[in-house]
Amino acid sequence: MKYTSALIQEAVESLSALPGIGRKTALRLALFLAKQDPARSLRLAESIQRMVEGLRECSICFAYSDSDVCEICSNPGRDRSTICLVETVRDLMAIEETQQYKGLYHVLGGLISPIEGIGPDQLNIAGLVKRVATNPPQELIIALRPCIEGDTTIYYISRQEGMEGIRLSMIARGISFGSELEYADEFTLSRSLAGRIPYHPKDNS
């Protein structure tokens, strides 16, 4: 595709690098921004710049935060007897949308997947083990994507030192096997959290 402006082309190249944005959509967005009041487009650019420069990772749960500790972890009104284990920040946000869960979270940042070369050391598992040892919760709710990688990750975590005295539960499998948690509707997520079941690791020895 030929462009009448190198600046438009540069904007399209940048926008099309975003997930789910093809070149046609990127062009449409670039042309939309070009027609807007410059102040409005600049506010968008400035907000992205502030996010890139100021966004941090919570030192406790590893969710995105504006400071060292996120708003959820620092909120005295949250139930500290439960920790909900999620794969990504998107999953955390999906559960928060249900407004049914009032406890804390821990973001793993992925799942153990030998095929993709992702091992336990590349995830926030050590942080979870340390956190549980320092302030043991009464219950660890496992809200990971139902798939082989998810089951492998759950089994590995359940075998870590310090997990013996903690009640492990899994959200009810109203979420279909292999599906993405973030795409589940609020009702399904709410029912899955409410209908969570105890987790008992299989002993393969």
What would your notes on this structure say?
The protein has 205 residues and is an alpha/beta fold. It has two domains: 6-54, Helicase, Ruva Protein, domain 3, CATH 1.10.8; 75-198, 3-Layer(aba) Sandwich (Dna Topoisomerase Vi A Subunit, Chain: A, domain 2). The protein is 39% helix and 13% strand. It contains seven helices and seven strands; from the N terminus they run H-H-H-E-E-E-H-E-H-E-H-E-H-E. It has helices at 6-15, 23-35, 38-54, 89-98, 125-134, 148-158, 186-194; strands at 56-57, 64-65, 79-86, 103-107, 139-142, 167-170, 197-198. The strands form two sheets. The chain has a five-stranded mixed β-sheet with strand order 4-3-5-6-7. A two-stranded antiparallel sheet has the order 1-2. Strand 3 (79-86), helix 4 and strand 4 form a beta-alpha-beta unit. The radius of gyration is 21 Å and the shape is elongated. The model has no long low-confidence stretch (mean pLDDT 88).
